[in-house]
Specification:
It is built from five helices and seven strands. The protein is of the alpha+beta class. The protein has two domains: 107 residues, Translation Initiation Factor IF3 (2-Layer Sandwich); 109 residues, Protein of unknown function (DUF541), domain 2 (Alpha-Beta Plaits, 2-Layer Sandwich). The chain starts with a strand and ends with a strand.
Length: 219
């Protein structure tokens, strides 16, 4: 059985955010299913109209999740027993809109959303437009890191590094987002767009890492 050395390579990459993602949540509720659907459809129409009004193309807003559930109350009867009473249907529609990093465009978009009759819950995140480039750099970095470690260990052990035998990598989805926490309180978001535009931000660089395990033969 050949002698081997197993090393975990750690890749690390920093990148400046160049893309903005605004996530939004709309919710409607009614005792009637049809009315619940009509209410959520109306909210979506309000949102689309507001964003198209500032230059976004139709269908720029994308659905990330859609859920309809029943809602119940727990009611106590005269005997002190609790029973579930049907209240209606609840529809939650999660959406997002993305665009190139531009603080003025961000301010304009937040202003339009704040004035929209739908009044969605929002969150803002900063990421990169091309995450695959980050993934490639991470894999290269992890490979270089692993080989350097293996060579150091072999040199210290007075042996020679041989042929690479296996690579084990978990192809999971990486969280390629800046840790910058950007929030606009409702009172501020309702201000005129010009005032919001005065807020200049420089999001923290995205700092992401990943690992892969390499096995080499020892000559």
């Amino acid at each position: 059985m050949p002698r081997t050395i197993t090393v975990k390579g750690i890749g690390a990459v920093k990148a400046a955010p160049d893309y903005i993602v605004i996530s939004m949540n709309l919710e409607s509720q009614s005792p009637q299913y049809d009315e619940t659907m009509e209410l959520i459809a109306q909210q979506i129409e309000y949102l689309d109209t507001s964003l198209e009004g500032i230059g976004f193309e139709k269908k720029s807003v994308k659905t990330t999740s859609f859920n309809v559930r029943t809602d119940y109350d727990s009611v106590q009867d005269k005997n002190g027993n609790y029973k579930r009473v049907f209240k209606g249907y609840v529809c939650s529609h999660h959406l997002k809109i993305e665009f190139d990093f531009d603080t003025n465009r961000l301010a304009q978009t937040l202003s339009a959303i704040s004035k929209c009759l739908a009044k969605p819950e929002i969150s803002i995140a900063f990421t990169v437009k091309n995450p695959s480039a980050i993934n490639k750099e991470l894999l290269k970095s992890a490979t270089i890191n692993a080989k350097e470690k293996a060579e150091i260990l072999c040199e210290a052990s007075n042996v020679e590094l041989g042929t690479l035998l296996t690579i084990d990598y978990n192809w999971g989805e990486l969280d390629i987002y800046s840790r910058t926490d950007y929030r606009i309180e409702e009172e501020l978001a309702a201000l005129p767009m010009a005032k919001i535009s005065q807020i200049e931000i420089d999001p923290e660089d995205i700092d992401v890492s990943d690992t892969a395990t390499f096995v080499w033969e020892i000559k």
